[in-house]
Amino acid sequence: MSKITPLKKRKASTSSSEPSELTVVVRRPPFSYVHLQLRYSENIPRPPLDILTARAYLTSALTQFLGLAGAAISVDILKVEAQEVWIRVPAEDLSAVVAAVGGWAGREEDGDCEVGWQVRAYGDWLGALVKAGGEKRAWGD
Predict the structure, then answer these.
(1) Is 53 helix (H, G, I), strand (E, B) or coil?
(2) Beta pairing class for 114-123 and 105-107
(3) Which range in 6-15, 45-54, 129-138 is most confidently predicted, on average pLDDT?
(4) Residue 115 DSSP SS3
(5) pLDDT band per the 50, 70, 90 thresholds, residue 141
(6) Interatomic CA distance for residues 68 and 63, integer angstroms
(7) Which long-range contacts (CB under 8 A, 24 or more apart) does 91-94 make?
(8) Fewest Cβ atoms nearer than 10 Å: which of 12, 72, 103, 105?
(9) What's the pLDDT band for 1 if we cut at 50, 70, 90?
(10) Quick one: which of 87, 86, 59, 58 has its CA closest to 71?
(11) pLDDT tens sequence across 22-39
(12) How far apart are CA 61 and CA 70, in angstroms?
């Protein structure tokens, strides 16, 4: 049977006069974020947008622009407040989602008024979008 010998520990060098170099690599995150606002053709007060209606309008926009491939894009609704929506999408689908929702025009359920999404901001880092829109306004603090 062979004998296993333990490795000798090395002492850290403390006499180095040169500063050590640190390299940081920031990779593209797997998700991107979009801040949307629902706009109406008629300028009358509307009740706040709910999650189900927002999901229906988003799915309609993606399906109209990209067909079944658009409907298959994973969209996570992070927040709905008044007429504004914050969503998370896969990073590789960001440009398609922005094009789809930015160019979409639909009708309200009762058919009286046209609706559309306005893209307020989008990017790879949620913190940058929150800062651009005001942290208190974005998260309701």
Answers:
(1) helix
(2) antiparallel
(3) 45-54
(4) strand
(5) very low
(6) 6
(7) 91/28, 91/29, 91/30, 91/31, 91/32, 91/124, 93/32, 94/32, 94/34, 94/122, 94/124
(8) 12
(9) low
(10) 59
(11) 888 878 889 999 999 999
(12) 8
Extract the tokens encoding 94. Answer: 């960001």
Question: pLDDT tens across 59-97, in order?
Answer: 999 999 999 999 999 999 999 998 999 999 999 999 999
Residue 87: closest CA among 9, 50, 33: 33
Report residue 83 as tokens: 């007429």
Alpha-carbon torsion (57, 59, 60, 61), positive or negative: positive
Residues 79 and 86: beta-carbon distance below 8 Å: yes
Which ranges constitute the DSSP H helices of the chain? 51-66, 68-71, 94-102, 126-133, 135-139
